[in-house]
Amino acid sequence: MADKAKEQHNNILLAVGGFSAVVAIVALIGFLALGRDPEVIQGEMEVEEYRVSGKVPGRILELRVKEGDMVAKMAQAQSAVDAAAAMEQMAKNGARKEQIQAAKQLLEQAKAGLEVAEKSYNRVKALFEEEVVSAQKFDEAEAMYKSAQAQVKAAQSQYDMAVNGARAEEKRAASATVGQARGAVQEVTSYIKETVQVAQMAGEVTDVYPKVGELVGTGTPIMSIAVMDDQWATFNIREDQLKDIKVGAELKVRIPALDAETTMKVTSMKDKGSFAVWKATKASGQYDQKTFEVKARPTTAVKDVRPGMSVILEK
Fold it and tell me: Percent of the chain at pLDDT above 90?
């Protein structure tokens, strides 16, 4: 009886051992045949974007683009400049021939008057010395003579100024006036240009904020434009997955929406900070794994890519 029980016990042990061996062999075959599933890291495509805004407030009169459109890079004050420039040129060139001729005639007329006044003064002086005329007559003749001398000096100065042109100080003042007027024109022109906003870089209009007829203030965004050629992918990767990932490394990635594969080069890596998602591992006596933001740019531009498309990195 004891021998029969012992034999039965051995049969059970053999059966259990055989079954365990079969399970182990099947598991080993499955592991070798299928291998481990690759670890998938999902990122997102992004593109550079800028906002169009003006530095003068106003009302929207017309919007010539809408979301999805592609865009390409693209006076009264003037009269003041012309007048100032004319004054500057006149100061540099001097007086016209007619002005010089007129000044010369006035000088000759003043000289003729001085000659007459001088003769009259000499005659009255001789008679005054002989006590033929009164002192009042002599004073009048003397005053007329001195006045004629002053007129000659003034006419001579006008004539010299017409011949020699403006002084250096006047020329500098005229040049300064031109510069000031041109500055005013540039300022007015810059404000006029700001009343019509144009794209600074080629791209696609992603958002249009105001509507026609609405008021916008200084610096208020009018629309956002995405520069589709300036593209990159952003991944949030735990530090235990960062092996072989470093700045300058190339990654093979897949974009499911386009059913395309491409190569990207890592351009930056930075800690997401204590507020970011992290994986607790202290329970196993290790450390808390932090998350890093990894940015990678395609080595060649990916056609038809859109911001927000998923990018798959398998490790």
Answer: 19
Q: Contact, 264 vs 289, CB < 8 A? A: no
Q: Which residues contact 290 (CB under 8 A, 6 or more apart)?
A: 238, 239, 271, 272, 276, 278
Both tokens assigned to 235: 């991944």
pTM for this model (two decimals):
0.49
Cα–Cα distances in Å, from 107 out to 98, 100, 121, 145, 164? Answer: 14, 11, 21, 16, 15
Whether 170 has a pLDDT exceeding 60, the answer reads no
Beta-bridge partners for 241: none
* Terminal C-alpha separation, the chain: 62
Most confident of 9-18, 52-61, 135-144, 228-237: 228-237
pLDDT for position 244: 86
Burial class (CB in 10 A: 0-12, 13-18, 19+), 228: buried
Angle at 274 between CA 270 and CA 279, to 5 degrees: 90
Alpha carbons 86 and 89: distance in angstroms, whole number: 5
pLDDT per residue as tens digits for the range 119-157: 878 887 887 787 767 888 788 878 888 887 888 788 787
